[in-house]
Design brief:
mainly alpha, two-stranded antiparallel sheet, about 0% strand, disordered N terminus
């Protein structure tokens, strides 16, 4: 007993060194997958295995106790007493015992929720865990659900339900983490399996789980967005169980709306966004009618935390890098392409034209999240908005929901209206016109906007945008996305003298060379290798000869 601490330190160092060299301990039963052979070992699992090995060496192996089953002749009760005594000696040993036991229960395939050994060890952890070690371990593993080996996933989910049955507060946080592992529209087979398990579990414990306002609000948004995604299932697995999933999702959303309507005020306009895409469903129509009559929701902001719940943690972090750091505007939009390839599958990037076969519901959530992030930053991101707009058009009729996200963000004056006006301006090019159109519009008729975009604005204007700026936006869309009048820009929240989205889009459109991806310009000055004489002429014409030096200086800074 006196040498325990010294042994644990040496054992952990040897284990870390061995795993770093690529070796695996015999009989480890590792929890996570290794993505590649040369990848370094996961730090979390290295630490967890060290604590579990210590328990095995000092207690379990000496008494021939197997955590997966009670073997004949094993001193099972004695081992439980020894572990309890070890945990009582110090706080650090108490944390180590809880950490090691939870990891051991996860890596043993044979441990069943009904077995006596499993229940005894779980009861020991719950009685000792005054520092929420078990909840933090389960939360960490839940955030890596798709990295787990298939044999470990049922064990994890069984322990989550046992935590909810024991009314542990950490179970609520774990449920939210699992929801973010299966975002609305996720077509992966493992996500479908997780969704079919998670929904019934939440319904069984809904009365206790939804007592927390954060869980209620996020679960409401998540369930309704999944109802919208299941209208067009993105995989065969989802299509096979769409009816069953839709029934459970609507039951959960209805329960939250009826018993926790006050909590939904925390979601602001996000509640309306979740209800909007599935408001035609008979079960949702009463909820939509009651929510749309609440004037406080119409003018409420979109909470960042609620929208981020509709994205995976790594996806939200990647999108934040594109928006807040302005990375989307560099390298001719390659950062946007990498983002789309990672979260929407195979993509093709032509200049700023992004085509993707990803799920339209998830793309709509990405668009709304990006616009909400950019509202706080205030930086023009023409490449990102043009790429996302092109992605919505490449989806055809199924991209209507993603285009609706642009319109929904315009319900309040500010950044989103300027961004959408700039995108429409950039995409308004002269097209060949028929004789009857030429008689009405002249030799160059305006390009028609997306076929359903104008309908979205007109349909929702009376509910979301009952101001004059809405009518101006409708007129812009009806005219094919032409340049917005100065009065519209002023009403949209643009400050006098501020460089507008309209100017950014005009510069990008005028300086783009045929057959090449666009490059960023400023004040009409081309990048290195461009036509310097044209830039010089434009500079002189703009500022009566003073624009030459100023344009070159800005070009160098660019």
């Amino acid at each position: 007993r006196r040498g325990s601490g010294q042994f644990a330190g040496h054992a952990e160092l040897e284990l870390v060194a061995g795993m770093a060299r690529g070796s695996r301990p015999p009989g480890a039963g590792l929890l996570l997958h290794a993505a590649h052979e040369l990848d370094p070992p996961d730090k979390f699992e290295v630490s967890a295995w060290a604590h579990y090995r210590r328990l095995r060496v000092e207690v379990l192996d000496k008494m021939e106790v197997d955590m997966s089953a009670s073997l004949p002749g094993s001193l099972h009760g004695w081992a439980i007493s020894e572990l309890h005594h070890m945990a009582s000696t110090s706080t650090e040993l108490l944390k180590s015992v809880c950490f090691g036991i939870v990891y051991g229960l996860l890596v043993h395939d044979g441990s069943s929720s009904t077995s006596l050994v499993y229940l005894d060890f779980l009861s020991l952890v719950l009685s000792l865990d005054c520092h929420s070690i078990a909840g933090r371990v389960i939360l960490e593993v839940s955030c890596r659900f798709h990295q787990l080996k298939e044999a470990r996933r049922p064990r994890l989910l069984g322990m989550v339900e046992d935590m909810a049955g024991a009314l542990l507060d950490d179970a609520r946080t774990v449920v939210l983490a699992l929801q973010r592992q299966v975002t609305p529209g996720d077509a992966r087979a493992a996500s479908t399996w997780l969704l079919r398990w998670l929904l019934p579990m939440v319904l069984r414990h809904k009365s206790w789980l939804m007592m927390d306002s954060h869980v209620a609000v996020r679960s409401f948004l998540w369930s309704l967005r999944w109802v919208s995604a299941l209208q067009r299932p993105s995989s065969v697995e989802l299509e096979d169980c769409a009816v069953e999933l839709r029934r459970d999702l609507l039951a959960l959303a209805s329960f939250i709306f009826e018993h926790g309507r006050g909590h939904l005020l925390e979601a602001g306009s996000a509640s309306l966004w979740a209800l909007m895409s599935c408001r035609d469903q008979p079960e949702v129509e009463p909820l939509w009618r009651r929510a749309s009559e609440d004037p406080s929701l119409l003018v409420a902001i979109l909470p960042k935390e609620c929208l981020e719940h509709l994205l995976r943690p790594e996806e939200q972090e990647h999108l934040s890098f594109l928006v807040e750091k302005g990375a989307s505007e560099s390298h001719d939009g390659l950062q946007v392409q990498w983002f789309a390839e990672r979260y929407f599958g195979k993509t093709v990037l032509h200049g700023t034209s992004l085509s993707t076969g990803g799920n339209a519901t998830h793309l709509a959530d990405v668009v709304l999240n990006a616009l909400n992030m950019a509202e706080a930053v205030g930086r023009p991101l023409p490449v990102l908005w043009s790429s996302l707009w092109a992605a919505t058009r490449s989806l055809g009729s199924s991209g209507a929901e993603a285009r609706l996200a642009f319109v929904f963000a315009c319900r309040r004056p500010g950044y989103a209206r300027r961004a959408l006006a700039a995108v429409l301006l950039e995409n308004s090019t002269a097209q060949p016109v028929a004789e009857e159109e030429e008689a009405l519009f002249g030799p160059e008729a305006p390009a028609a906007p997306a076929p359903d975009l104008l309908a979205h604005v007109e349909e929702l204007a009376a509910v979301f945008l009952p101001d004059s700026a809405t009518k101006d936006l409708v007129r812009i869309l009806a005219s094919g996305g032409g340049p917005p009048p100065d009065e519209v820009i002023r009403r949209s929240g643009e400050k006098p003298g501020q460089k507008s989205f309209r100017d950014s889009a005009t510069e990008r459109g005028s300086s783009r060379s045929p057959g090449r991806p666009h490059s960023q310009h400023k004040d009409g000055v081309r990048a290195k290798g461009g036509n310097k004489s044209d830039a010089k002429g434009r500079g002189k014409g703009k500022s009566k000869g003073k624009g030459k030096g100023k344009g070159k200086e800005k070009g160098k800074k660019r």
